[in-house]
Structures are given as C-alpha cells and as structure tokens.
Amino acid sequence: MTTTDTRTAAPEPVLADRAERPSLGRLWDTWGITAILLLLLALTPLVAPGFLQLENLQSVLRESAYLGIVAAGMTFAIAAGAFDLSVGGQLALVSVVTLLAYGAGGTPAAVGAAIATGLACGLVNAGLITKLRVPPFVATLGTLFVFRGVAYILTQDGPQTLPYDQIGSPFVKIGGLNVAGVPLPFVIMLVVYAAAWVLLRRTATGRRVLAYGSSPAAARFCGISAGRIQLFVFALVGLSVGIAALTYITRVWTADGSAQDGFELKVIAAVVLGGTSLKGGKATLIGTFSAVLLVSVLNDVLVGQGVPSAYQRIVLGCVLIVALTVDGLRTRFAVPGSLRRAVAGLAGRSTDPDSA
C-alpha cells in the first residue's frame, strides 16, 4: 500500500516542473508587447524630437485612457471566447446621453447617466446572446448600428456640446485635471486595471471566465453556466464603456453618432496584440495595458508627423493583421519547454537524445 502511494505521488514534482518551464508563448504573452513598447519609446524621439516633452507625454496618457479602459473590459469578453463589436456605438451613445444629463442635472447626473447607459448597452447585448441565442458576432454587429443610430437621433439638431463657460466645472476636470503631474484619466485607467487584475486572477468569477473560454463544453460539465458568463462579460464591457466615456467626453467636449468611428477595431487590436487569445481561455491584462500604450504612442507619432487619416487607418489595419498573426504564432510556441528548445537550436545543439 505504501509502495502504491509512493508511485502515485512521484510524478507530481515532474509535472510541476514541466508546468513551470518557460515557453516562448508565455514570455511573449506577459512581456513581449511591453518590450516592444519600450523599444518604440526609445526610438520615437529620433522621428519626433518633441515626443518626450512633458506636455506631449501627458497628452498621450490622457488619450490612451478611454481606449485602455474599454480594452480592459474587452479582455474578459475575448478570454471567454467572444468579442463585442458594438463598443464604438456604445461610446457614441453614452457620450451623447452623458452630455444631455449634464445639461439637465450637472456632474452627478452626468456620471450616473454614463455608468447606467453603458451598463444598459452591455445588458442589451447580453440579453440578445443569452435569451435569444443570437451569436455574439451577429448580435454586437447589429447593436453597433442600433446604438449609433440612437445617438444620431438624439443629435439630429446638432452635436451635443459642453458650453465653454463650464471649463472650471468638476465634470470637465475629470478629463483635464492632473494628479501629481499624471492626467486623472490615466489614473482612472490604472485603478480600472488593478481592479480587473484582481477580478481575473484572484476571484472565482475570473477563473470561470478563463475556464469557459478554454473549453465551453468542459466548463458546462463542471457546472459553469454559459449564460451567466456571457451576461457577466458583456455587462462588464458596457460598464467599462460607461467609465471610459467620462474620460473621453470631458476631453473632446462634443459628441454625436459619428464619434470614434472604428473604435471597436482599435480595442480588439489592442487586446489581441497584448496577448489575449481569440480562441479564449487565455488573457493577460499586463499585455493589454502595454498594447494600449503602444497603439496610443503610434497614433501620436502619426498625427504629430502630419500623416493623413486615411494612412492612419491603413496602419491600424496592419496592426490588427499583425495582432492576429501573433495570436497564431503564440499558440505554436505556447508548449512548455519551447524556449529551451529554441535556445538550444540557436546554439546549434540538438535536444534529441538519439543524436547525442
């Protein structure tokens, strides 16, 4: 009996050792985009000499906030094996409703309206997917046009704008205030990522999202409700849009149905480029955070160099293609020990025992 117990327990250290072995895929997931971001930051001043000025860096961080906040929510959706194509329409609608609410009730009404409207948009998507069984791609593609259409109806007499005499109001300070030299929108983004990391890595809900994205059938067999997971992730995306809209609208001061056209592609590109697999089951918020900054820095350089918007869209499309390509390559090198084999191959050594 003792011998049997010993034989059963023996492989455990070996399995643990295999699980802890580094792989190219894992290293890329966590630190690959961060390394590219640092390289880009080092080379950017050669192309744009004024990039490292404090005012410009603050502008980049402020600009990255609304994209990054929505990308944090989208990370959960993609990790669950779905994605939300309607976030651009949501941002436009939430921005319009927020300005309407501000005109009616000031800062408290605007903040409440932004959060409530964003969450409502997410629940609409969740209801279509969980109750009517509409595939996420079709449901969110449809609501993208619906949300933008409603925003257009609300602004048919002209875009909603903030009066210039509100420049010193608490609401405007959400987008314009600096905290110890750091833009408040970026501080809000940091808080959102900290909360998202805890939710994903330190709670049962986060583990269920990853388990469902990895294998929906196995997750259902283990008692994980597909409907609850989809309800949670799409409501979370809507909530993130509501928070992001507060940092967006207090910076641009105007909104209508055309606001941030193509925004959903930027968000998905940042999440996938950051290391979250489109197949689901794997997510890295560190990678998403770095990818958002990378996209923001790249956009700042293009705008600063006077690149036409048409070419900026081409660059964004290329970034999305690269993100999808990297997602496939990452899967190839995700096997434990791939890093060791790659290094051995570069050094001209064979890992095949028969060749020794």
UniProtKB/TrEMBL annotation:
<feature type="transmembrane region" description="Helical">
    <location>
        <begin position="310"/>
        <end position="329"/>
    </location>
</feature>
<feature type="transmembrane region" description="Helical">
    <location>
        <begin position="285"/>
        <end position="304"/>
    </location>
</feature>
<feature type="transmembrane region" description="Helical">
    <location>
        <begin position="229"/>
        <end position="250"/>
    </location>
</feature>
<feature type="transmembrane region" description="Helical">
    <location>
        <begin position="174"/>
        <end position="200"/>
    </location>
</feature>
<keyword id="KW-0472">Membrane</keyword>
<keyword id="KW-1133">Transmembrane helix</keyword>
<protein>
    <submittedName>
        <fullName>Sugar ABC transporter permease</fullName>
    </submittedName>
</protein>
<feature type="transmembrane region" description="Helical">
    <location>
        <begin position="136"/>
        <end position="154"/>
    </location>
</feature>
<keyword id="KW-1003">Cell membrane</keyword>
<feature type="transmembrane region" description="Helical">
    <location>
        <begin position="64"/>
        <end position="87"/>
    </location>
</feature>
<dbReference type="Pfam" id="PF02653">
    <property type="entry name" value="BPD_transp_2"/>
</dbReference>
<feature type="transmembrane region" description="Helical">
    <location>
        <begin position="31"/>
        <end position="52"/>
    </location>
</feature>
<keyword id="KW-0812">Transmembrane</keyword>
<feature type="transmembrane region" description="Helical">
    <location>
        <begin position="99"/>
        <end position="124"/>
    </location>
</feature>
<dbReference type="InterPro" id="IPR001851">
    <property type="entry name" value="ABC_transp_permease"/>
</dbReference>
<dbReference type="GO" id="GO:0022857">
    <property type="term" value="F:transmembrane transporter activity"/>
</dbReference>
<dbReference type="GO" id="GO:0005886">
    <property type="term" value="C:plasma membrane"/>
</dbReference>
